[in-house]
Amino acid sequence: MKNIKLIFLLLCFVLALPCYSQEEKGYQISAEISGLKDGTLVSLKSLEGKEGTAIAKYGKFIFKGKVEVAGTPYTLGIAGKEQRIELLMDNSLKLQLRASFENLPDCNFGIIESGSYLDFLQRVQAPFSAAYRKFEENKKTDSISTALSKQDYNVATQTYIKEVYLWIGMNPGSYYTPFLISFWWPEIDKANAYNRLTKKAKNSYYGRQLFAQVEAIKQENK
Question: How many C-beta atoms lie closer than 10 Å to residue 188's C-beta?
Answer without folding.
Answer: 9
